[in-house]
Amino acid sequence: MPSTARPPDVGEPLEPLPKEFAAFMRPELPGLMKEIGIEVTRAYPVYGRLLNGPNADAIRQGVEQALYAFVDRVAEPGKNAALRDELLRRFGRVEAYEGRDLDTLQGAYRLGARVALRRAKAVGQQYRLSPSLILAFADALFAYVEELERISREGYAEVQSRAFSEVPAQRRRLLHLILAAPPLPQALTGLCEAAAWPLPAEITMIALRSPVPEHLEAGLADDVLADLDGPQPHLLVPGALTPERRAMLDAALTGARAVVGLTVPLAQAADSVRWARRVAQLIDEGVVPEAPVVRCEDHLVTLWLLSDPALVSHLAARELAPVDRLPASRRDRLVETLRVHVSTRAPAEQVGELLGVHAQTVRYRLRNLDSLLGDRLADPDRRFALEASLRALHLLERDGDGA
């Protein structure tokens, strides 16, 4: 059995586990992630707070990468793990920014390993794997945990090497604390003084889409807080976007791709950056048109309608159930006519012009819809539900068409 005296080098095969073992463990990973999340947040409530903050997606992605990279290395020794390593360094940087030592993070890693080992023992019983194989798995797993700790320590040391007495380092920590899950920490005022940063009543967050140009930070005003090193780079601009602020950002963001969040009270900074990141995701999905700089305020209805796509689909299925029984081509024509009708409140002639059909055709379709939908079009609440779901479906169809 291999020794755990030192962690394996990145990419080193996890001997003596057979490659086939990966096939047994891979289906377990989604459930294992949930189980580890429950156990870790129960033992370390601070991570429950972080999982409700603006970095929640990056944290979950880091956990996922750590688990899948272990199984991938069993199946394919030497597979690249660069994304995993960057996310693990991010974990270390977060611990340093929040003023904790690494004991908490290391404890969470080891607790996760114990949960994984428990799951592996159950898999071993299910597939009648030999006890020696499970022991080899345990040995490799805890060696892997030491590797994770070492990589996170690199990120931690990177932050620690910057003297926190320096204003730039203080401001990086300040930005992290502002974006942590509410409420804002009591120490914020003192940290603002140490960072020479006046505490603003309101702020505007900006989500940056990778890659970030090297010149960007140099063009920012002195009071703009920036985190350009993480997987989700962002800026915090004190106050509203005045004409002067807009001119500064336009110059600094030349060559960059960014989404400007809403101007909100300081305590809602995490909401502003969350909305900006969601718009960035909708750009990637083809729902929101691509542009160098996109403003959340121009897409609020889209943000709202697509805040929970699964719920929108459920609502649409409920409201359009009577139409769903029709042949697909007829259903599509009626749904499109209904969408234009309820969203424009226009007469049949204008609806016909928008759809490219005769007004009499529109009237015929609307009579069909009245008979199919009953009181849905007369009841204000049901009509609103119909309009919201139809608008959302139209946005999602544009995505599916690559529009």
Automatic annotation (TrEMBL):
Residue span, PucR-like N-terminal domain: 16-179
Span of the signal peptide: none
Pfam families cross-referenced by the UniProt entry: HTH_30, PucR-like_N
Top-level taxon of the source organism: Bacteria
InterPro entries, per the entry: CdaR-like_regulators, PucR-like_N, PucR_C-HTH_dom, PucR_C-HTH_sf
Domain called PucR C-terminal helix-turn-helix: residue spans: 334-392
Name the UniProt record assigns to this protein: PucR family transcriptional regulator
Organism: Streptomyces griseoviridis
